[in-house]
Write a structure and sequence with these properties.
Elements (H helix, E strand, L loop, with lengths): L2 H20 L2 H8 L3 H15 L4 E4 L2 E4 L1 H30 L3 E7 L6 H12 L4 E7 L1 H9 L5 E5 L8 E15 L12 H4 L4 E4 L4 H11 L9 E3 L2 H9 L4 E5 L9 E5 L6 E8 L4 H14 L2
Parallel strand pairs: 3-4, 3-5, 7-8, 7-9
Antiparallel strand pairs: 1-2, 5-11, 6-9, 6-10, 6-11
Helix pairs in contact: 1-2, 1-3, 1-4, 2-3, 4-10, 5-10
Length: about 300
């Protein structure tokens, strides 16, 4: 590849990555804080430098060509790698003697947190971790009180003294025993779930509010058949045929006699987020990126 082509790629890679992420030139321009005509000219200049059509007309706008899509994927990977590099450079000196303290909801400790720590420790083997788990409210309280740098929770409220950073959206499913009438259905509505005995987590757990929001959107919510303080207990009660639990998908193979049924409702999900103390943001930046990657 010629030097001029490499320079063009280096210059316009963030633009190409933003176009792929926002699926529009206007959205990319907004994300990068540049005028839309400048974004369009940049794409045209990149096409000319490479001798490859990167975009093509699509009504009143333009879209990436197949070649542009391939190049955009590479650009996204390059931009992500650069962001990690920048975060690493900013915190290099401090990280050599840092302990990251994290509070997390129990279910997030099964897959998300171990994967993120594994990714992070492959680059920062000398950083140590202090981990505690509990309910959503307890994790948030630990972050607000300064007992931990980061709290990993579901559907956190708006908070004044700490920063809330969404990581990813996690679908919720109905968990029923294998012999349940719903077990053979492709999906179920929230209205239909209101007809079943409900197994719910106690107040203070993120999933408690997520389930009430979902069921409440379909009608009056009856009292739960069981309130528990661990999602694994909720799954066990569902496996025993004592009610229906609304939970995240199992992180591994189920193998417990239950069936997970998708729920037809836009509210059948929860947002997993990191609650971060402002003074910890710089030190934790690289780990927050690892959390976002692990959640994909």
């Amino acid at each position: 590849m010629e030097t001029g082509q490499l320079r063009a790629l280096a210059r316009y890679a963030p633009l190409l990555a933003a176009v792929a992420a926002t699926e529009s030139v206007g959205g990319a321009a907004d994300e990068l804080g540049i005028p839309q005509p400048s974004a369009s000219r940049g794409l045209k200049a990149l096409s000319e430098a490479l001798g490859i059509p990167i975009v093509q007309p699509d009504g009143r706008t333009i879209r990436l060509t197949p070649a542009g899509q391939e190049l955009a994927r590479a650009a996204q990977e390059a931009v992500a790698a650069l962001r990690l590099g920048i975060a690493a450079a900013r915190t290099q000196d401090d990280l050599s003697r840092t302990e990251l303290s994290v509070a997390f909801q129990t279910q997030l400790g099964e897959r998300l947190l171990p994967r993120a720590i594994g990714r992070y420790r492959s680059q920062r083997p000398h950083v140590t971790f202090s981990l505690i788990h509990g309910s959503r409210d307890a994790c948030i309280e630990a972050a607000v009180a300064g007992e931990v740098m980061i709290a990993l929770v579901a559907d956190p409220p708006e908070l004044d003294t700490v920063e809330v950073l969404p990581l990813y959206v996690e679908p919720l499913v109905a968990v029923v025993p294998a012999g349940h009438p719903l077990a053979s259905t492709a999906s179920v509505t929230a209205a239909r779930l209101l007809q079943e005995p409900s197994i719910r987590l106690n107040r203070g757990y993120g999933l408690h509010d997520s389930v009430l929001r979902l069921l409440g959107g379909a009608g009056p919510v009856p009292e739960a058949a069981f309130h528990v303080d661990d999602y694994r207990v909720a799954r066990g009660l569902a496996a025993a045929g004592l009610g229906v639990a609304i939970l995240p998908r199992a992180s591994g193979g189920i193998g417990d006699g239950t069936v997970e049924i998708p729920i037809e409702d836009p509210l059948a999900s929860r947002t997993i987020a990191a609650v971060v103390r402002p003074e910890a943001r710089g030190i934790a930046e690289e780990f927050l990126l690892a959390l976002a990657e692990a959640g994909r």
